[in-house]
UniProtKB/TrEMBL annotation:
This is Late embryogenesis abundant protein SMP subgroup. Keywords: Repeat. It comes from Arabidopsis suecica (Swedish thale-cress). Belongs to the LEA type SMP family. Transmembrane segments: none annotated. The keyword Thylakoid does not apply. Pfam families: SMP. InterPro entries: LEA_SMP (IPR042971), LEA_SMP_dom (IPR007011). The keyword Flavoprotein does not apply. Residues 13-65, 130-187, 195-253 form the SMP domain.
Length: 256
């Protein structure tokens, strides 16, 4: 009596099945060379691959896809070939490592820096935390290539108002720039011609009339604004709301 063979999967594992990505990448099957590239990047940054991280997830998915005959050893996704796989680190009050496939965020790791508790002035305390402006600037690293839309503009506006403590939007401020970008992008069809988040948020801290440390309430307000203005009622991975949320979480470890 022969043993029953395991059934082959009917559909490949795609990026959209395991990561919060969108567009063309979401419909692409994960290929073995994609996984190898992420393994190489994680090893370069961390010294090893991360247990349960994007590289491990991609390797498991690629193995399933090879077994199902959807991809072959040596295959690489065309978007990965064009845009690459990267792991980047930024170091504000913490080391934030963001992993990208085809220009989209697939993973983010946060390692808080050790902060020595001591009697501090308000200025010294601010230097030990992440400000709203710094969190906005961090978005350039995690989602800088994203075209600005209404959900981004709403989130940036909420962040600016939280920083200033008023409902007034500065005429030449970062929120006004974001709204103008969103309005313009709504009239443009091709993404490469649209204004990106990096164009609006680079140097954001210097564009705020008032800046202060991010709190949980600030993050919740920004998350709410971004979700309300997104047709899918969700936030963008690595976007404005995500950056404020990470900053607030880190600041809770500091006496602010």
């Amino acid at each position: 009596m022969s043993q029953e063979q395991p059934s082959r999967p009917k559909e490949p594992v795609k990026y959209g099945d395991v990561f919060e990505v969108s567009g063309e990448l979401a419909d692409k099957p994960i290929a073995p060379e994609d996984a190898k590239m992420m393994q190489s990047e994680e090893t370069r940054v961390f010294g090893h691959t991360q247990k349960g991280g994007p590289a491990a997830v991609m390797q498991s998915a690629a193995t399933v896809n090879i077994r199902g005959g959807f991809v072959h050893p040596g295959d690489k996704t065309d978007l990965v070939a064009e845009r690459g796989v990267t792991v980047e680190q930024t170091v504000p009050a913490a080391t934030v490592t963001t992993e990208f496939v085809g220009g989209q965020v697939v993973g983010q790791h946060v390692e808080p820096r050790r902060i020595v508790a001591a009697a501090r002035t308000d200025e010294e305390a601010l230097q030990g935390t992440i400000t709203i402006g710094e969190a906005l600037e961090a978005t350039v690293k995690t989602a800088g290539n994203k075209p600005v839309d209404q959900s981004d503009a709403a989130a940036i506006q909420a962040a600016e108002m939280r920083a200033s403590g008023t409902n007034v939007i500065a005429i030449a401020g970062v929120a006004a720039s974001a709204q103008s970008a969103a309005d313009y992008n709504a009239t443009v069809d091709r993404d490469e011609r649209k204004i990106k988040l990096r164009d609006v948020l680079t140097g954001a801290a210097g564009k705020l009339s008032v800046d202060r440390a991010v709190t949980r309430e600030d993050a919740e307000g920004v998350v709410s604004a971004e979700m309300r203005n997104n047709p899918k009622l969700c936030t963008h991975p690595g976007g404005v709301a995500a950056s404020l949320t990470v900053a607030a979480r880190l600041n809770e470890r500091v006496d602010i």
